[in-house]
Amino acid sequence: MFEITLNPCALLLRQAVIPFIRMRTYHGELYIAQNVVTLREASGSVVLFLQMKPRMFHTFSCTENLCLGFDIRHLYRYLLLLQDRNDAFLRLTGDASGHIDFVLLDISQYIPS
């Protein structure tokens, strides 16, 4: 299982995903391990590869190595929603079942009271 939380400053990730969108082949693979998260997409002779360290994320946990397929447009839509709001975090969770949940969370859940 994994859980990743992105803060509202996920601008760099959104910009990094744009080439994936421009390729117009939207099936991506997300490789998750305890020390790295890799986003990969291949189309013909072109391969896009984005490797991220856990410190890039607001929170990160991984209990098992996973390789999950997903539609990159879905991630991009949520990153755009996150860009439009300065009061939210984006949480991604998933497990070996192959399902990834994308959820916008209110920022007040992450501010200590």
How does this model look, in words?
It is globular and about 45 Å long. The protein starts with a strand and ends in a 7-residue tail after the last strand. α1 runs antiparallel to α2 (72-84). A hairpin with a 2-residue loop joins β2 and β3. Helix content is 23%, strand content 45%. The strands form two sheets. The protein has a four-stranded antiparallel beta sheet with strand order 5-1-7-8, covered by helices on one side. It has a four-stranded antiparallel beta sheet with strand order 4-3-2-6. The protein contains two helices and eight strands, in the order βαβββββαββ. By secondary structure, the protein is of the alpha+beta class. It has one domain (2-110): DNA Polymerase III, Chain A, domain 2 (Roll).
Order of helices and strands: EHEEEEEHEE
Under CATH at level 1, the class stands as: Alpha Beta
How many β-strands, per DSSP?
8
Principal-axis shape? globular
- The proportion of residues forming helix, as a percent range, comes to 10-25%
What's the overall average pLDDT, rounded? 84
Number of domains: 1
Question: In angstroms, what separates the terminal alpha carbons?
Answer: 29 Å
Tell me the CATH architecture.
Roll
Strand content: over 45%
- CATH homology group: DNA Polymerase III, subunit A, domain 2
- Any idea of the CATH topology? DNA Polymerase III, Chain A, domain 2
**Cα-atom radius of gyration:** 14 Å
Low-confidence stretches: none
Q: Given the structure, what is the number of helices?
A: 2
